């Protein structure tokens, strides 16, 4: 059991909520308690500050894994982009109908406020580490705890910068209401991230004994991402973009070529001896995700533990089969039914892959790609309805997609029937013997995988005009995937379609697609949304340009002593 990351806040809550023992009922009823806990006396040991940092790991775990299937987190993960949409049965939860999307939308407020909640937790840990009553066993112990907190603060601001642009930078503990926060520029927000990460780069170890704890490669990866994002904005603003892109390449290369991390190219892990599978499939099997499991591709992973889930932590799960899985039992009930491994588990199709994600990126020359093999991206489903003419046989996609004479019915059915990635389902569900219903996976999951570092470097190279270098980096992934078609400089297009398509193949269900699209600048995001959204509402209602999410109106209105300007395109909506 991963004891350090069971995500129990018992210790911290005990500090914040406990009171001294009462001598009598009369004492208990006194309105003036004998002890108050403040930011200056809430912590008494270094271990308690480390637990405050663990609480941030917990919040990020829940934000990424989304154990409760919250719709605003599904938007954060990509609902409404070129890659994901909602099924016919959930069109009320669409995030690409711009007749309904405006700065009052709760998605924007929830995302914005959640990142600031994380920042507040990080600020508390950083401040408390220097309290005079805290004793650290070594300087290195303190540096690592503080380094993790500063990483989380930088990570939050990087996400805010990519999604919302320049935001107020808050590094102090706020103990009373404040209504005059000032926005920085987007470049300044990225610069804060860069400064924070550079300051702690050497305070984090190259590797750890425990899975899930931050390492130096995570800092360097985020520096590559931050410099890339800053360079893109500097290019828009007329600044020194080339220097930023070169720094992005430099930090990415530290990770890619530093000797600690490497792409997995041979079968490995718990199921390597099975005849089925391939190395890409191995990456997403239980007990295979962490660096400590022998997976040199994993830079940082969130931690899931089935024993903890059963004992005390009901959120220690990946509800991916449920949230992302298809509903053949509705969309093709005459041929496929049930909720077993043969149909991808107990899916309810909260978030579906668009036709672009499931089919378009693999058309033509992409038939030979490990990432599109049936074990990785399952396309062959055997009929399991006894009355079906395809009982015991593969059900053709023409039947799954176009079995009705009515076009609207077919579109609805297609939204419920789609290939199943090995990232969201398995043929061996843990916990079935205990009553689990094939909704959840109980493996760890990636925050950062080396593949993304490589794609960041490829993009930075392209933005410097080095299309040949960008192609070489993309080919690192295609060679690993045994693709029959490699790219050349001539394939590297100026609209970054090659980069974005490769990210879709490699990082489906991993990256936060909105972050990627919105940092690209220009109209890349809205152009792709209008082209690839599953439902027609996007093209019909997306009649304005934007490359940032709006600042939530609630935030603007609350900040009454300082004007927070709305992002372009969202004014008066």
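^ structure tokens above, recovered residues below v
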């Amino acid at each position: 059991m991963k004891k350090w990351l069971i995500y129990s806040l018992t210790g911290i809550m005990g500090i914040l909520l406990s009171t001294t023992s009462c001598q009598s009922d009369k004492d208990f009823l006194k309105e003036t308690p004998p002890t108050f806990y403040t930011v200056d006396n809430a912590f008494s040991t270094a271990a308690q500050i480390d637990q405050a940092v663990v609480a941030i790991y917990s919040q990020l775990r829940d934000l990424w894994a989304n154990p409760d299937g919250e719709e605003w987190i599904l938007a954060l993960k990509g609902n409404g982009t070129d890659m994901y949409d909602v099924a016919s049965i959930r069109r009320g939860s669409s995030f690409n109908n711009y007749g309904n999307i405006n700065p009052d939308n709760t998605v924007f407020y929830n995302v914005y406020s959640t990142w600031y909640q994380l920042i507040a937790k990080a600020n508390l840990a950083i401040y408390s580490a220097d309290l005079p009553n805290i004793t650290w066993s070594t300087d290195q112990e303190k540096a690592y705890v503080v380094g993790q907190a500063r990483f989380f603060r930088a990570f939050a601001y990087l996400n805010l910068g990519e999604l919302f642009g320049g935001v107020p930078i808050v590094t102090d503990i706020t103990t009373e209401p404040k209504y005059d926060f000032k926005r920085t520029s987007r470049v300044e927000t990225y610069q804060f991230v860069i400064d924070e990460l550079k300051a702690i780069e050497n305070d984090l170890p190259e590797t750890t004994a425990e899975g899930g704890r931050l390492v130096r490669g995570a800092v360097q990866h985020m520096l590559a991402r931050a410099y890339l994002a800053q360079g893109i904005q500097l290019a828009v603003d007329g600044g020194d973009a080339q220097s930023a892109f070169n720094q992005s390449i430099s930090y990415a290369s530290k990770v890619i070529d530093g000797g600690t991390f490497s792409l997995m190219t041979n079968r490995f892990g718990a199921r390597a001896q099975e005849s089925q599978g391939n190395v890409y499939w191995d990456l997403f099997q239980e007990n295979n995700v962490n660096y400590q499991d022998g997976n040199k591709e994993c830079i940082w992973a969130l931690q899931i533990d089935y024993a903890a889930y059963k004992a005390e932590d009901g959120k220690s799960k990946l509800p991916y089969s449920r949230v992302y899985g298809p509903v053949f039992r509705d969309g093709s009930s005459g041929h496929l039914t049930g909720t077993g491994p043969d149909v991808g588990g107990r899916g309810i199709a909260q978030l579906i892959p668009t036709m672009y994600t499931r089919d378009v990126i693999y058309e033509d020359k992409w038939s030979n790609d490990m990432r599109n093999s049936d074990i990785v991206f399952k396309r062959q489903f055997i009929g399991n309805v006894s009355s079906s003419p395809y009982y015991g046989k593969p059900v053709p996609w023409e039947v799954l997609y176009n079995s009705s004479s009515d076009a609207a019915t077919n579109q609805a059915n297609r939204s419920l029937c789609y290939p199943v990635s090995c990232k969201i389902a398995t043929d061996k569900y843990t916990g079935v013997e205990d009553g689990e219903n094939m909704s959840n996976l109980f493996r760890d999951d990636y925050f950062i995988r080396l593949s993304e570092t490589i794609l960041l470097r490829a993009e930075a190279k392209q933005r410097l005009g080095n299309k040949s270098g960008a192609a070489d980096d993309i080919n690192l992934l295609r060679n690993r995937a045994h693709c029959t078609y490699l790219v050349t400089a001539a394939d590297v297009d100026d609209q970054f379609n090659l980069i974005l398509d490769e990210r879709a193949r490699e990082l489906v269900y991993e990256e936060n697609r909105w972050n990627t699209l919105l940092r690209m600048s220009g109209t890349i995001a809205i152009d792709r949304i209008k082209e690839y959204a599953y439902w027609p509402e996007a093209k019909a209602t997306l009649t304005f340009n934007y490359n940032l999410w709006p600042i939530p109106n609630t935030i603007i209105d609350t900040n009454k002593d300082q004007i927070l300007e709305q992002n372009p395109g969202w004014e008066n909506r």
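Strands lie at 84-85, 298-302, 352-353, 377-378, 420-421, 445-449.
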